[in-house]
Write a structure and sequence with these properties.
single chain; 310 residues; alpha/beta; Rossmann fold; UDP-galactose 4-epimerase, domain 1; 2 domains; seven-stranded parallel sheet; 10 helices; 18% strand; binds nicotinamide-adenine-dinucleotide
């Protein structure tokens, strides 16, 4: 298949590109910037442009079978600062993408939604896809809104789609200086001899999934051909919960040194716990996570050690 990854030079996009190439697909990456951490891959067709530019998006969509929509302008923690920007830059621009997909008759749109924010404060764990959706950040609301528009475009125009409600991915090519991605950020601090910063008491629980497993789930989502009664929305995570304090302990075991931890006040957009029920993805997508937390942290640490030498 010809696959287009919008946001293809970022953390998830680059790992997804590797996974698609390995499976024999042709890959185009549409992004504003080149990858931060690696040289251009001659097998990938790189197109530089802005997701906000309708003409550029229309042009790059043409001729592709699968569209992976990964570009996003906001993060959960900061999205509440300017919800109007979140709506304008994500919902409106995604609607332009869906129009382009409809015109070009693409075979499948795979959208990365957010398993960590669309449900809000969970009523029960692990969280099933049918759990009520009450996001407590604008990012969760815009992700959910785009899910609804995908459903609408399917209903009106027969545009095929799958939504992946992704948990907390970590692994190679994740920016350790970013504002999200606890494992990479913590490892980056350890690498630089800085203390680890935790918002709150460290008992906030999240579902961490190794990026190779997440990329594989995205590929399976594109391959999945549901009939009308089958689900199109999937949780993708490890299905297990770890507190930040447990993550720190796991990192300590991998890097083999004592770590300094500094606590800051908890953030209002953080739900206390989030662990996804992944049974639906296992059954319908014939997928399951393969890499456990310790192996995943080791792979991430080994990668960071390698890039820090270059
Ligand atoms: N990383 C996570 O923890 C996580 C969890 C759940 C969902 N997601 C979602 O996954 C997607 C990818 O996240 P990521 O972690 O790879 O982020 P990332 O920042 O590493 O990558 C995003 C890429 O999109 C590109 N991009 C952003 N705006 C663009 C625009 N207007 N035009 C062209 N390119 C643009 C960026 O240059 C970047 O290369 C996002 O939709 C994010 O909301 C991420």
């Amino acid at each position: 298949m010809k696959a287009l990854i919008i946001g293809g030079n970022g953390f998830i996009g680059s790992n997804l590109a590797d996974c698609l190439l390995k499976a024999g697909h042709k890959v185009t990456s549409f992004d504003r910037y080149p990858s931060r951490y690696r040289e251009a891959d001659p097998r990938i067709n790189y197109v530089y442009g802005d997701f906000a530019n309708h003409g550029e998006v229309q042009e790059v969509v043409k001729g592709n079978d699968w569209i992976f929509h990964l570009a996003y302008t906001t993060l959960p923690a900061s999205s509440n600062e300017d919800p109007a920007f979140d709506v304008r830059s994500n919902i409106i621009d995604t609607l332009q993408l869906l129009e382009a997909c409809r015109e070009s008759q693409v075979k499948k749109v795979v959208f990365i939604s957010s398993g960590g924010t669309v449900y809000g404060v969970p009523q029960s764990l692990p969280i099933h896809e049918n759990h009520p959706t009450e996001p407590i950040c604008s990012y969760g609301i815009t992700k959910l809104t785009i899910e609804k528009y995908l459903h609408l475009y399917h209903h009106l125009h027969n545009l095929d789609y799958v939504v992946v409600r992704l948990a907390n991915p970590y692994g190679e090519l994740q920016n350790p200086q970013a504002k999200q991605g606890a494992i990479a950020v913590f490892l980056g601090n350890v690498m630089q001899g800085k203390p680890i910063t935790i918002w709150g008491d460290g008992e906030v629980v999240r579902d961490y999934i190794y990026i190779g497993d997440a990329a594989e789930a995205l590929l399976k989502a594109a391959e999945y051909c549901p009939d009308e009664n089958e689900p199109r929305v999937f949780n993708v995570g490890s299905g297990c919960g770890q507190s930040l304090n447990e993550i720190v302990r796991a990192i300590r075991a991998v890097v083999g040194k004592d770590l300094e931890v500094v606590h800051h006040p908890a953030r209002s957009a953080d739900v206390p716990a989030n662990v996804l029920d992944i049974e639906r993805a296992k059954k319908c997508l014939d997928w399951q996570p393969e890499i456990n937390l310790e192996s995943g942290i080791r792979k991430t640490w080994d990668w960071l050690c390698k890039v820090s030498k270059n």
